[in-house]
Amino acid sequence: MLELFSAGMTIEEILDDYEDLEREDLLAVLAYATRLSQVKRIEVAQAA
């Protein structure tokens, strides 16, 4: 979805192309991406 937004598609255009999605789904994608962009560091757990 982020790739579609970055290509310039609007929410309405995406909803037209993906009929199983709702506006709230796309807003959740944007909220999640915003949260990820605020993460300063990601630690990878190593197997013991």
Structure description:
By secondary structure, the protein is mainly alpha-helical. It contains three helices and no strands. The protein has one domain (2-37). The relative contact order is 0.13.
Specify the number of helices.
3
**Number of spatially distinct domains:** 1
The backbone outline, from C-alpha atoms, is elongated
Largest sheet: none
- Which structural category do the helix and sheet elements fall into? mainly alpha
N to C succession of SSEs: HHH
Rounded to an integer, what's the Rg over CA atoms? 15 Å
Overall strand count = 0
Report the average pLDDT across residues.
90
Beta-strand content estimate: under 5%
Short characterization:
The chain has 48 residues and is an all-alpha fold.
Write out key terms for the chains shown.
single chain, 48 residues, mainly alpha, 3 helices, 56% helix, 0% strand, elongated, WH-like_DNA-bd_sf, DUF433 domain-containing protein, DUF433, Homeodomain-like_sf
Layout of helices and strands:
Elements: H1 2-6, H2 11-17, H3 23-37
InterPro entries: DUF433 (IPR007367), Homeodomain-like_sf (IPR009057), WH-like_DNA-bd_sf (IPR036388)
Pfam families: DUF433
Protein name: DUF433 domain-containing protein
